[in-house]
UniProtKB/TrEMBL annotation:
Membrane topology category: Multi-pass membrane protein
TM region positions: 12-30, 42-66, 78-101, 107-127, 279-301
EC number, as in UniProt: 2.7.8.31
Similarity comment: family membership: Belongs to the bacterial sugar transferase family.
PANTHER family membership: COLANIC BIOSYNTHESIS UDP-GLUCOSE LIPID CARRIER TRANSFERASE (PTHR30576), UNDECAPRENYL-PHOSPHATE N-ACETYLGALACTOSAMINYL 1-PHOSPHATE TRANSFERASE-RELATED (PTHR30576:SF0)
Domain Bacterial sugar transferase: 274-457
Compartmental location: Membrane
UniProt organism field: Pontibacter locisalis
Name of the top EC class for this enzyme: transferase
Single GO molecular function: undecaprenyl-phosphate glucose phosphotransferase activity
Identification of the protein by name: Undecaprenyl-phosphate glucose phosphotransferase
A Pfam family recorded for this sequence: Bac_transf
Entry keyword set: Membrane, Transferase, Transmembrane, Transmembrane helix
InterPro entries: Bact_transf, EPS_sugar_tfrase, Undecaprenyl-P_gluc_Ptfrase
């Protein structure tokens, strides 16, 4: 894909310029609807600058938010755009408070956001349609063939065809032993002996080789032909006989390595981004929320029952290392701290029940985040007794401890929190934790945080 990097960069810049233009136009139209003119006052001008800058920041963090090619499906593009607007709204709301823009008309804000979302959304759809038309037309700037017509070749064809990469066009298979019963047989253009002539006559740009790597002479011959005729030669190894799941290819210096499990947080840059956000978000909560909320909760806990304000307990963290986890005390002082809370648990105080229902009991864990023992988002740290038990009966349980545990997690916002008296409930929780590990992105963390706040507002039936 390095070949197209300049093209994707151009698309990104073009989309960014178009978005800024549409944002400016949306601001003008919104001001016209609200006040009958297009002239911005001072506060609205400041708001425009913040709006555009935050959108630029979001575009940097969002996963391919500005791509208009076919690398992602339409559903994925729409989801990315929605996630981008959710993150944008979250950051923009903070900016409004910080820069004291509360006097802006709420109706004007509504007009502005709706018109911006509409214009950018429609522009993405139009650009996507134009991209699709260009891809399927004879103007495609990259034509490719696949050597082989077996399972590896058809799987590659399905993947490339489903993604509809911008400007690429599939021209056919070449195989000496093509299966006539295969649904793809009609797309076989000939045997390998006919490949070179076909490439020259049809201006082929790329050759994908999917046959077993047993014929070194054949591979060298095709590679030399490709070099001599300015054709890109790609070898696509078939590992289906070894593993039946997605793999990732890494390079340690010049040594290729395969990882059977996706591990986004094993990439140093991803860990740095996540850690910077953890510290920034935790400091924001600590300085903006703790000064007024912590005394109120502490007073309520102390008035109802005797005992400490905070509850401290050892929990297993990354790679099973134990750390002291902090929470607000939600139970009467007892000696059964390793026993999981149940519905109508007599140990839970009235104040504690409210704190659990709203997740406010977890607030002190932002100190754990600052200490580096936890992250804002990640698999929830279970009890030590649960680690000992479930690691013996759930095969992937220990995998969740490859990453730093979180205050909130993918399993929790997906409905799997609270009591796990049935094994299947913990298995589902582990399934979502592993899915989070393998599909982590910054936008995924933002989505989980948003859903956590939403669940705090509406309350959760499994929180007790």
């Amino acid at each position: 894909m390095n070949k197209y990097r300049h093209y994707y960069s151009f698309n990104r810049v073009l989309s960014l310029i178009l978005d800024f233009t549409l944002i400016f136009f949306a601001f003008k139209i919104s001001n016209l609807f609200r006040y009958g003119n297009m002239e911005f006052d001072y506060q609205y001008s400041v708001f425009f600058v913040l709006f555009a800058l935050v959108w630029w920041i979001v575009s940097g963090f969002s996963n391919f938010l500005f791509r208009i090619d076919g690398i992602f499906s339409c559903d994925k593009k729409v989801a990315n755009l929605i996630n981008g607007f959710i993150l944008h709204a979250f950051l923009l709301a903070s900016c409004i408070v910080i820069f004291n823009l509360e006097q802006l008309s709420r109706l004007l804000l509504l007009y502005t956001y709706l018109s911006t979302a509409l214009l950018i959304g429609v522009s993405r759809l139009l650009m996507d349609q134009i991209s699709g038309y260009f891809t399927k037309s004879d103007m495609a700037h990259t034509r490719y063939v696949i050597v082989g017509a077996g399972p590896a070749a058809t799987a590659l064809h399905q993947t490339l065809n489903a993604n509809d990469n911008l400007g690429t066009k599939f021209m056919g298979f070449f195989d000496d032993n093509a299966d006539e019963l295969s649904p793809y047989y009609s797309q076989v253009r000939g045997e390998l002996a006919e490949l070179k002539e076909y490439c020259l006559q049809n201006s082929i740009d790329e050759i994908y080789y999917t046959l077993p790597l047993t014929d070194k002479e054949q591979v060298d011959d095709l590679s030399e032909f490709a070099d001599d005729n300015f054709v890109y030669f790609r070898i696509v190894p078939d590992f289906s006989a070894i593993v039946e799941r997605d793999m990732n290819l890494y390079f340690y210096h010049n040594v290729p390595m395969l990882s059977i499990r996706k591990e986004p947080l094993e990439i140093a840059s991803n860990r740095v981004v996540k850690r910077i956000f953890d510290v920034a978000f935790s400091l924001t909560v600590t300085f903006l929320i703790f000064p007024w909320l912590l005394p109120l909760i502490a007073l309520a806990i102390r008035l109802e029952s005797k005992g400490p304000i905070f509850f401290k307990q050892l929990r297993p963290g990354k790679k099973n290392r134990l750390f002291v986890c902090y929470k607000f005390r939600t139970m009467f002082v007892n000696n059964q701290t390793e026993l999981q809370a149940t519905k109508d648990d007599p140990r839970i105080t009235k104040v504690g029940r409210f704190l659990r229902k709203t997740n406010l009991d977890e607030l002190p864990q932002f100190f754990n985040v600052l200490l580096g023992d936890m992250s804002v988002v990640g698999p929830r740290p279970n009890l030590v007794s649960q680690l000992d038990h479930y690691s013996k009966v759930i095969s992937k349980y220990k995998m969740r401890h490859f990453v730093t545990p979180g205050i909130t997690g993918y399993a929790q916002v997906s409905g799997y929190r609270g009591e796990t008296k049935e094994l299947r409930l913990m298995e589902k929780r582990v399934e979502y934790d592993v899915r989070y590990m393998e599909n982590w992105s910054f936008m995924m963390d933002m989505k989980i945080i948003f859903l956590t706040v939403w669940n705090m507002i509406k309350g959760e039936k499994n929180a007790y």
